Amino acid sequence: MTDADAAVANPHFLDPDWWRHAVVYQIYPRSFADSDDNGTGDIRGMIDRLDHLAGLGVDAVWVSPWYPSPLLDGGYDVADYRDVSPDFGTLADADAFIAAAHARGLRVLLDLVPNHSSWDHPWFRAALAAGPGSPERARYVFRDGRGEHGEEPPNNWGSLFGGPAWTRVTEADGRPGQWYLHLFDISQPDFDWTNEDVCAEIDAVMRFWFDRGIDGFRIDVADAMVKDAALPDVPVNPETGFGSNEKNPGMPQWDQPGLADVQRRWRAVADAYAGTELGGRVFVAEAYIDPIERLVAYVEPDRLHTTFNFDALISEWSAASQRWVINHTIPAHEAVGAPTTWVLGNHDNTRVATRYGKPVTGRDFTAESETAAEPIELSAALLAMPTDIGLGRRRARAAALLELGLPGGAYIYQGEELGLDEIEDLPEAVLQDPVWERSGHRMRGRDGCRVPLPWSGEASPYGFSATAEPWLPMPAHWAPLTVAVQDADPASTLNLYRRALALRRTLPDLRADAFAWDELDGGDVLAFRRGGVLMVVNFGATPVELPPGEVLVASAPLDDHRLPHDAAVWVRL
Ligand code: NOJ
After folding, report:
1. What angle do CA 56, 59, 64 make, to 5 degrees?
2. Which of the two ends of the chain, N or C, has the fewest CB atoms closer than 10 A to its terminal CB?
3. What CATH number does the domain located at 122-181 have?
4. What is the CATH number of domain 514-572?
5. pLDDT tens-digit profile of 320-358?
6. Which protein residues touch ligand 1 with a CB less than 6 Å away?
7. pTM
8. Ligand 1 atom, smallest distance to 161 CA
């Protein structure tokens, strides 16, 4: 990269506060672009398609795990934190990707999975071999079982993917032995974050990638690292028969006080790069915790920089609920001096166009508060409902203008810019998410939002691969949604995103933090101002008369300066 290249591509590239306003595009490497025609995406494919992202107008990419992994949880089961999976390429490819992204003015965030490794990680293998009481075992959460012969798990916790959160190992002498904790899949043993080896190793892993030029990390399950040392039982979830994974305050698996010190330690590692060309490195936390006042503790000044706003993702499509989320999100972040983020989807959640086409579109935040639903549970509940995909796509376009119109940062999950829907009818034989097996086929899991991207052509593999069968089948009805088709259609969702992102980048009012509700706001109409730009979203059936002004971008055609149902507009007053 030269600074000049990057600055031409994105004038805000070298702004040390770039992350406060950044639009970040999530690449799920397996499903983005396949350069070697084996049906699985790879890093060379990502490089080949970087111009799509530069042309879209995003500021950064977040790459889901590309590390060596048995892929038993889509790469969130890391076997080596300092390398790249041969399925995706080589370290040299990773370096080339980082350089190519920077040359286009795109910052690069990597996924870091510090709560657990894969069971293929050398540390876990060493822990199994070394036996009870060893320093190798102390890096993970191994405990003796309960019951006379240790035959009962150490507590009643349940895995988020179904089944128990503990698995018993066979010791070297062939006898049943200790149990290890895995909040997720059996192949994802949890690290013990009270162990200094673990803390030091993750510091070193961060530096390894920072030194290669990455700009920050997305922190996987940022609320889980530290557990209540007593590992107490929790109330039973009657549906699973195991301990509940609700995240109410006081639950011993989540959001423990000790997390603050872990996060401060990471912050110091990232801040040490402040004097370098790329500046200090940044974090975004993945934590589904409620209410937002609890979550913003993670982004206090000496902790992490940003956190995903899952309330926005989970909220139903209604003015009241969205207003509630905005009214809670902005002040809570202001109180700690952190920018908000806005999120519509990711690789764990039902795609937005499908969600918003359901009779129930998400959580009603104005109703008596419940605890946040885990994405997997939410997706399972949605699956049973019919979808009006036309309506869902229309709303998803409006939601994009709402998301991109708000102050702070925003996240775009690959394919959102194409209005892709969830593939809800994948054949059971192709399902890969461990949730499917671990839930005893009660929940299909998250494969439906991970289907590869359609780039061009009339049929699968739509330019994702040259000829190979993609790792998940791509549907016939995506032919009109390819990048190539949408590129040529000025009214496409792709061009809507491009227009909105270009405005966001160039209009100073949209880079400032100012936000104020407008007098038009009320009932089914959400209306707010960003300086001299008015943003309006109509959730109701009645068209909304807009005040005089220049229409900058609209998610649906206006009828004589009136905004129709399920549509959004940006107006320069
Ligand atoms: C959150 C990730 O987004 C998800 O895909 C993964 O299964 C879990 N964390 C466990 O790492």
Report:
1. 90
2. C
3. 3.90.400.10
4. 2.60.40.1180
5. 999 999 999 999 999 999 999 999 999 999 999 999 999
6. 73-74, 76, 113, 184, 220-221, 286, 347-348
7. 0.97
8. 7
